[in-house]
Structure formats: structure tokens, C-alpha cells
Amino acid sequence: MKTVLLASALILGLFGCLVAVPPPAPFPFPVPYHAFCRALWLFATPCAEISTKIAQQIQAFSPEYTLAVATPLKIKANHTSPDGIGAQNITFSFSPTVLTAGCRVSAQSISLGFSSLLDNGLNYCNLYKLLSASGLTSAPGFMEMTNEWACLGYGMAKCIA
């Protein structure tokens, strides 16, 4: 009798767990018909300094860039092209690195309107313009990692600061 109860409890527990597991969340990738760019930047500078410089640069480029949220670990902003036609959401996430006491920055720009996936590097330039103008491209330990898969139009980008 005890064996039957134990086996029943195990089977119920096994199948009960399968039922209680929620379905996996969708991948956090941009919708396929929106142009986007994702980049990863490394710095040998603390995140507080990096995030402050980026937030200040967003404010300096007003009204083309508008700051929506600024915390020590995340910045959200919006970009509107000078002609007023295109708009993009921009996000920066900051993670301290233990080895160099530096910062890992995940940056992304996503076009809001329906557009060609090949945006000639517009989304990349939105991110790079802020980085370059704030002087962070010459910061200690600066390294950029992205490619055409993560940043559509990256190879065609001709950013004008």
C-alpha cells in the first residue's frame, strides 16, 4: 500500500509540475519589420560615470533626443530625426564588471515606425552619436562589439557627429 501511495505521489508530482510550469516568454528581440541595432560596449570606467555622461549628452542634444528614464543601471530615451519623420526608442543598460572595476553597457535603438530593415545604419548612428559626443569612445578600456546580425545596417553606417 505504501509503495502505491509513494508511486502515485511521484507521478502526480511529476505531471503536476509540468502543468504548473508557465510557457516560456517570447524572445526579447525587436519585431522583425522594425529596424534595430544592439551593441555591447566595455569600459574600464565605473558605470556611474558612463551613465552620467550619456544622460548629460542626451539632454544636450534636446529636442532631437529626449530623456525618458535615467537610473544608475538603465537609461531610456527617444530620438526623433531632424526631419521629424523617423522615431526610435533607445535603451542603455549598465552592469559593473568585477575584473576591471569597469562597466558593460548594452545599448539598443529600435525604430518605431514600419520601415525597411536596412536603415543605412540610422539606429547605430543614434547610439554612436551619443557615445562619441560625450567623449566615451576615447574612454579607458573602450571596446565595441556588434555586427550586422545584431545591428542591421551597421556595415553601411556613415555616422556624422
Can you give a write-up of this model?
- It is a single chain.
- This protein has 161 residues and is α+β, with helices and mostly antiparallel strands.
- It has one domain (34-156): 2-Layer Sandwich (TATA-Binding Protein), CATH 3.30.310.80.
- The chain has helices at residues 2-20, 47-60, 122-133, and strands at residues 36-43, 65-70, 74-80, 87-96, 103-111, 143-145.
- Residues 4-27 have low confidence and may be disordered.
Short description:
Keywords: Signal. By secondary structure, the chain is α+β, with helices and mostly antiparallel strands.
> Which structural category do the helix and sheet elements fall into?
alpha+beta
CATH architecture: 2-Layer Sandwich
Secondary-structure element string: HEHEEEEHE
What does the radius of gyration come to?
22 Å
> Overall 3D geometry?
globular
- State the separation between the terminal residues, measured CA to CA: 78 Å
Strand percentage lies at 25-35%
Provide the helix percentage: 25-40%
Mean pLDDT: 83
